[in-house]
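Listing 4. Sequential folding, example run.
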Amino acid sequence: MNIAQWLARVAAVSPRRPAVFLGRERACDYAGLHGRAARLAGWLSAQGVAPGDRVAIFMTNVPDYLTALFGIWYAGGAAVPINAKLHGREAAWIIGDAGAAVTLASPEQAAALRAAAATGRLVETDGADWAVAMDHAPSDGPAARAPGDLAWLFYTSGTTGTPKGVMITHRMLQGMTLSYLSDVDTVTAGDATLYAAPMSHGAGLYSLPHVLMGARHVCPPSGGFDPAEILDLARRHERLHMFAAPTMVNRLTAHARDAGETGAGLRTIVYGGGPMYLADIEAAVDRFGPVFVQIFGQGECPMCITALSRHDVADRTHPRWRERLGSVGRAQSLVEVAIGDEAGRVLPPGETGEIMVRGDPVMPGYWQNPQATRKALRDGWLMTGDVGRIDADGYVTLHDRSKDVIISGGTNVYPREVEEALLSHPSVAEVSVVGRPDAEWGEVVVAFVVPASGSKLDEAALDAHCLDRIARFKRPKAYVALGALPKNNYGKVLKTELRKILEGANG
């Protein structure tokens, strides 16, 4: 089934239901969204886009993002959403690798693609082609697609090398949507979802359960993440849902604390995409109440590996509540999750190893990359590359990416454990821990620290703080003060850049 059938059905039953907003202003109802998507599909088909062809989206978070996404699906195409913050050359590489025949782009992004000499036809959303498309005869309805057909070609962030295209099928998106409604949150027609994170990634994926249930979709006028704007829109729309990276949650919490806000109108914040430290989520719950749900997923199993319920995030009564809060929750309904050794053999509860997942939401492979596919998929399991353990109750605790584990003196040191300890010191605003090659120990622990406002790096104080909380061999052997941690466009810390800093210092 074509995933776009959900939009067609809602538009048929509730055509006048409000669908898309730009801030406080309504952009269209469900009949309008359906009509625009159908006309775009008709135009794409007239340009020769056939079922299975790739069409790229290089757009900011604007109301017509949903028009583009569903219009591609209506035509039977596969969407290739690209983060609008990427450089034109990076986006052009993705367009070329995907073999996208057409790219739909916002004006600024279109200019960047022209400068990068991107391949394929470029359609600017305020240009003549787009205007013609919005006047074109609509398609008869969503093109027939099989469950295993490609729907979304998702390119990984490329923090460790060239991005890989994850093939996301219609079946995977259906599974993700049903898992959201079963394991993450309920959605009704009275709810609204806010796109403050890039729609090319998790926030855009989560448009699907909200379309299925006929909810409202809100694009912030800023086009991105602005804490004051988010809190204002929450009050205006009420019952507001949003997806946020941990760094966004921290900024929202800090702004609300300084402004005396409590988050009126916020119903659900789903967080994921990076490590959320205990002190940060405790502060967020204290400020906003039980509105948080954590998910753990990857592009290869989009948003769909584990979930930590709002009850578990907010609960303080369970004897092991802090341990559970430090986990990423339990397996979502449509997947199996296990811990494996280096050979992929399943380990018993409590053992540490690589997190593995299998089920309908798992990708069939990487786009035109059989070697990477063979490495990632083993005997039906997706090898996530993340190290963790599962307790007897099924809660998964994520330690680190396998490539980030530090082996010092033959013993594994998990950077996140050291980072958690350092972040509980009041002089530390941000921290990231990596390993530095060492002739005696193999690797030693190095902490890159962003001091809190008004504080300076005090190595002796941080050493004493660590020794009170973690084993002596885990404490950093060196500290490096930074004004800010290097991050990619999704807010993830670039440990590869930190390692380059160490190489430069040693060179």
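-- end of first protein; second protein begins --
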Amino acid sequence: MNLNELTIKAARKLLDDKTISAVQLTTACLKRIKTTDKTLKALITLCEKSALAAAHEADARIAKGEKGILLGIPYLAKDNLLTKGIKTTAASKMLENYVAPYNATVIARLEAAGAILLGKTNLDEFAHGASTENSAFFTTKNPWDIKRVPGGSSGGSAAALAADFCLFALGSDTGGSIRQPASFCSVVGFKPSYGRVSRHGLMSMTSSTDVVGPITKNVEDAALVLGVIAGVDEYDSTSSPDKVDNYTKNISHNLKGLKIALPQECFGSDLSPAVREVMDKAISELKKLGAQVREISLPHTKYSIPVYYIITPSEISSNLARLDGFRYGHRSKVKVGESLNEIYLQNRGEGFGPEVKRRIMLGTYALSAGYFDAYYKKAQSVRMLISDELNETLEKFDVILTPTSPHTAFKIGGQDQDPLQMYLEDTFVSGPSLAGLPAISIPAGFIKGLPLGLQIVGAKRQEAKVFQVAHNFEQATEWHKNKAKI
């Protein structure tokens, strides 16, 4: 038995029975990372010493009779989540040597629960991308085919989990950044409702859609992790005061009579026959499980990408203004003129990568005088239409079903010179983000040996319903049991 391949629930039983120790479990994960990450390149920082110390502490807590679902469970965190005393780079030269003075709330909650942080994972710089090729340091590879991308921006977390570096990982999802890499890597990626999990200590990208969520080996594990990290936070005014549900309580309830909506805009002629075949089989399986499936129309869905890519760069332009090389961030060693603008230009020119600069410029333009009403204000108006349309649909249906991605993982270097093509990666996943809805990607099949995910979207704060549908589908199929060969 390879301990690093265990699910959270399986490891919990072995830890509680004293069959294995947290030190053994952590050591197995560290060994896997050391032997495989030279090829995969999923980690920016490995925290071997502190991880082993935390494992010893977890064993001591278990020996005293302490209980906890994540006590002694090793995990990895995306490197845009602040970790006290550990570098948090956001995969950017701008923050290459930045060490956070405090933990993000999700990290603090996991630490209190006894989870063991193994390290920090690679991402597209400041989470700007869909392939992890925009990292300032290196490109993470897909464990199913190392010539292909793992998706993004949480590509490091998804690839690491698919390669069994850990038992779960944390990602952030702004417009699909957990779900799309989960699809590409054949793992479970869950985006909670906006505000369900605190954003405190998450480096802001698009503050109105940013969410922290789990990437796991199965649906039940995602529900278990969410139960620990969810909840109101005094440091995040957008966090929800609603009581955190027991997300596993009804997870196995059958789907008899449950209503599923299929947006025709997501299953049109643009969808390849291979992807359509995978989706048709998934729909057929859900029908066998007792669900009622009906095709609907979401006419405003087609505007999700243009709306997202006006609002997102606008908020990025504002959020990254703090990184000027004075308070923190890269400070150029090149002597420049005495003008403040010249110093800013040098610091940011060297510290930011091409995609970050592109988004800052797009956002600044959209927010500028004379263009604000035409672009940003109009985008926010259309966002409300998209949100209302989704919410109204979910008053009549339990969930909405779509492909997670229009295709499987593409080759490294295949799209990185075409920003528009890369933005279209978010076709099916940006709408739920704009509306703040919970959504999950689960393994649904393979096309020529490459995985493809199924997206299930629920009403706001209805995470438990999403988990129920996803878990039933997962247990009726074998896709989640397939292992990457790396």
